[in-house]
Design a protein that fits this description.
With 188 residues, the protein is mainly β. It is built from 2 helices and 14 strands; from the N terminus they run ββββββαββαββββββ. The strands form 3 sheets. A 6-stranded antiparallel β-barrel has the order 2-3-6-5-4-7. It has a 6-stranded mixed beta sheet with strand order 12-11-10-9-14-13, with no helix packed on it. A two-stranded parallel ribbon has the order 1-8. A hairpin with a 4-residue loop joins β4 and β5.
Length: 188
């Protein structure tokens, strides 16, 4: 029941002009120029970095400037990306500290039972006893499993581990998530 593409969490912009399905998804961030050939240090946010190949179009910055990847190579825990039209460190430096997006409709399909974070955010969460718990407002990546932050109408937060024993059903069309509350999950 885990989500993918951790970039759609609430603390990162999804590029969406309106609530709901975003038009763009953040896949990483450009940091600084590297070397003399216009390469940029790229911090990876996506679970699918393999789609960032030469020839692929991405969208850079808040204005979603379309750019085509010219080259790509690994560097420690980052990638070195170069874009067509940016051949030296001075021109590439214009892209410094910009987020890089892909179109949401170009995202890879996920296996059955897995969801992108942006698909889950905003779902109404209901217990298997019929109790309205609130809306899913944030997804925390803890390493072992995600934790869903549910905010009630009173503003109280409930933390739900994204485990099969807790998350019983996700119905994206109905906008609902059915959960089983284990002892200790609700604040007293």
């Amino acid at each position: 029941m885990t989500g993918r593409n951790k970039v759609a969490q609430t603390e990162l912009p999804a590029g969406s002009p309106q609530p709901g399905e975003p038009a763009f998804l953040v896949v990483g961030k450009l940091h600084r120029p590297h070397g003399l050939r216009g390469e940029m240090v790229f911090e990876i946010y996506t679970d699918f970095p393999e789609r960032l190949e030469p020839g692929v179009s991405v969208y850079v910055g808040e204005n979603h400037q379309p750019l085509r990847i010219r080259s790509r190579r690994p560097s420690h825990t980052t990638l070195l990306l170069a874009f067509e039209g940016f051949k030296d460190p001075e021109s590439a430096g214009e892209l410094r500290n910009q987020l890089v997006y892909v179109r949401a409709d170009d995202r890879p399909p996920l296996p059955e039972g897995e969801y992108y974070h942006h698909q889950l955010l905003g779902l109404q969460v209901v217990s298997d006893e019929g109790r309205e718990l609130g809306k899913l407002t944030q997804i925390l990546d803890t390493g072992a499993n995600d934790v869903y932050v549910v905010r009630s109408t009173s503003g109280a937060e409930i933390l739900l581990p994204a485990l099969a024993s807790v998350i019983m059903d996700i119905d994206l069309e109905a906008g609902k998530m059915l959960v089983h509350l284990l002892p200790g999950l609700l604040p007293e």
